[in-house]
Amino acid sequence: MRIPALLLLLFFPFHLMAAQEGALAEGMVNPGYHEPPAWFKESFLDLSGDIAEARAAGKRVLLYFYQDGCPYCARLLEDNFGNRAIADKTRKNFDVIALNIWGDREVTLPSGMTMTEKKFAESLKVQYTPTLLFLDENGKGVARLNGYYAPHKFEVVLDYVAGHHEKEMKLAQYYARRNPVAASGKLNTEPFFLPRPLKLADNRRTSWRPLLVIFEQKACQPCDEMHREAFSREPLVMALSNFDVAQVDMRSAERLQTPDGRELPARQWAGELGIQYAPSLVFFDAGGREIFRSEAYLKSFHLHAVLDYVATGAWRHQPNFQRFVQHRADILRAKGFAVDLMK
Fold first, then answer.
1. What would the DSSP string read from start to end of 194-249?
2. Do residues 316 and 306 lie in contact, with contact meaning Cβ atoms separated by under 8 Å?
3. Beta carbons of 67 and 101 less than 8 angstroms apart
4. What pTM was estimated for this model as a whole?
């Protein structure tokens, strides 16, 4: 089914990699269903009706894309919506509608077109679960979160959309105002980082390895955890050896050379790329073109999977990262290894 361009324009801009995944193979299931809160909307999945009902109640619609067995979905439901202040704020300002990225329920789009949940998720290029789409009163995308955001980060997005602040500023600007960098913070360094000043276009001309740019900021707890835990694991550091790795302070005025050869302040480049969460990992090919990104909280298992997904070239053949992760975990379990997706 061909998706009209107008449909895609209804939603917040997303990044690379079209999801072409079809139905699950016969006999395959997604185990580990996590029950959403009782206050999620029981929708008939007629989005025009849902948007109109929310508008009449002074609310907006929040589409929550999930899959069974997703530990980050569980974390969103337990840690974020298990937080009373966040739950109350969400209930007050949003009608939350859950959509299974592999589901077969019929969704009626604002245009009147109908398609299954999985085709709808595919048309929007949903690559991570959870993915959350915040819609305004006309069904236009206001914000999109690709992956899990910790409670204090997630609450900032709720306030941004509920307060209609998109009329005043971009989400990244709102983040900067609500969550300023602490003066006492510092960036963690690693011996495998490219030296400063960063000359990324020069690097692309001389290196055969993919380029990984890690956007961080000072006083960033997830950044500290990534360095302290993930980067202390020998297998993960070995996986990083397949890349040229550059660290960029997303709030810094320090100038760098971008992969396309421009000289820009780091914060300007981060803004152009739409970086709004630290750490974010953005991968570039030999020609300096972005090929994949991870922009949410990741534990070591998923971080290692992201590195292998790009390093092996699997992204060219398997356009859905979740399928890659599932296959990886299945192989490990079949060999008798214990797989904990939250480690």
1. PPSSPBHHHHHHH--SPEEEEEE-SS-HHHHHHHHTGGG-HHHHHHHTTSEEEEEE
2. no
3. yes
4. 0.71
